[in-house]
Amino acid sequence: xxxxxxxxxxxxxxxxxxxxxxxxxxxxxxxxxxxxxxxxxxxxxxxxxxxxxxxxxxxxxxxxxxxxxxxxxxxxxxxxxxxxxxxxxxxxxxxxxxxxxxxxxxxxxxxxxxxxxxxxxxxxxxxxxxxxxxxxxxxxxxxxxxxxxxxxxxxxxxxxxxxxxxxxxxxxxxxxxxxxxxxxxxxxxxxxxxxxxxxxxxxxxxxxxxxxxxxxxxxxxxxxxxxxxxxxxxxxxxxxxxxxxxxxxxxxxxxxxxxxxxxxxxxxxxxxxxxxxxxxxxxxxxxxxxxxxxxxxxxxxxxxxxxxxxxxxxxxxxxxxxxxxxxxxxxxxxxxxxxxxxxxxxxxxx
Length: 350
Fold this sequence. Notes:
Oligomer: single chain
Largest sheet: 6 strands, antiparallel, barrel
Structural class: mainly beta
CATH class of the largest domain: Mainly Beta
Mean pLDDT: 83
Low-confidence stretches: 1-10, 29-61
Strand content: 25-35%
CATH topology of the largest domain: Thrombin, subunit H
Number of strands: 18
C-alpha cells in the first residue's frame, strides 16, 4: 500500500487489573513466566465504549425446577475437570500449569471438547477427572488455529466404574432469553453449576492481550459470574443440549461471560469422527461486527441498510473489514473500513 501506515485496533483505556480474563485456574500460587506477564491471560473489551450494566446471576440458594434438576443430574456425568501443563512456551502460549473444564462429545471414541487456550498450541501434558473421581490421561487430537476450541482424547476403557455418556451439541439452541446453566470446574471446585440467561448473540470476540485471541466469529454473552477453572465448560439448556462453550469473561466486578458458538466446533468434530481433515478457506482479512449507525458513517447507503434490515430483521449490524493482510488474497480488493454486503450473492452479517 505504498508504505502508508495501516490503521491498528485502538488500545483499551481500561487498566490491566480491570480487564476480563480467560477462565483458567492456576494449579498453585507459584508464579509461572505466564503469570508474570501482565498481558498473559487477560482480555480487554473492544466494545468498552458501551455502558454495561452488571446483572446479578441467580443465587445458588434458589431451587431449580424438577426439569433442571433432572438435566443437571444427566449432564454432570459427561463433564470433566482438566488438570494440565503447557510444558514450555510455544507460539503465543507461555508455560503454565492450570485447571479447566471439558465435556465428553463422543463416548465411544473418547473425545472431549474444551477451549483452544486449554489444549494450547505446543507441548501438552494433562489428565481429566470424571464425576465419580476416576482419572485418565488426555492428549490433544485437534487444536483449532483460529477459534477458541480444541479436542482432547482419552481411553474410554480406562473408565471402569461409570457408564460413559456424551453431550449433544446444538448450535441453534443459543437464542436471546434462553435460560442456561454453566456446568464445570468453576474456581477449581471440580463441579459448580452457574445460572444465567443469554443476552446477546452478536458480540465481537474478546481481545486477549498480546497472546492468543479469537477472531472472525461472533460470541454469545450472558451473566453467569464464572471464574477461573470454568474455561471449556458446557453451556446447557433445560433439554440437556450444549448450546455454547464457555471461554472467558469480565473480571472487573461485572458478571458478564463470553461463550463461543458451536457451529465450527460441531463441524470440526464431525470431520474428525469421519477421519477427514478440518478444511477451511480464508482471504486473510479480519472482520468486526459494527452496528448500523457506525456502518452508515463508513458509507453504508440508506438503500442497502433498508435491504439488510428487511432481509434479516433481527440483525443490528454488519461486518466491517478491520485488518487486511498486506500482499494477501484480499489486498487491493478490500480496504480497512469496507462494509461486507454479500458473499457469492448471499447476504452475510455475521
